[in-house]
Amino acid sequence: xxxxxxxxxxxxxxxxxxxxxxxxxxxxxxxxxxxxxxxxxxxxxxxxxxxxxxxxxxxxxxxxxxxxxxxxxxxxxxxxxxxxxxxxxxxxxxxxxxxxxxxxxxxxxxxxxxxxxxxxxxxxxxxxxxxxxxxxxxxxxxxxxxxx
Length: 148
What we know:
The protein is mostly beta strands. It is built from two helices and seven strands. The protein has a four-stranded antiparallel sheet. It is globular and about 40 Å long. It starts with a strand and ends in a 16-residue tail after the last helix.
């Protein structure tokens, strides 16, 4: 079981878009990647821990998540989606997708920071991901946010 589970809430108030999600461990290694298709006015909540665990990847105790959209994705504002990290504290079984089926004792949320193109670009991130070639894993969505 886990004592902490991390999810990523991605909201799209814009046109339909693709979001590439790359996971890094605490040693700057890309360990996996996935992609979310967001429809207009969509909200998806990705269970980061179960997405990795479900694909047989050990969930790191620390890491980073990079979000980007391919440059040809139609969005009308920079990064037409918004993302928040939600950390749940409690007791969660590793083989259960929905953390709220566990015992939640605390919740923390924070907005993800948009990194300006002067720091890194989609092309630079894509080149790093391609070089390390982490496995593509299916996303596990929670809180009834998957498309029906």
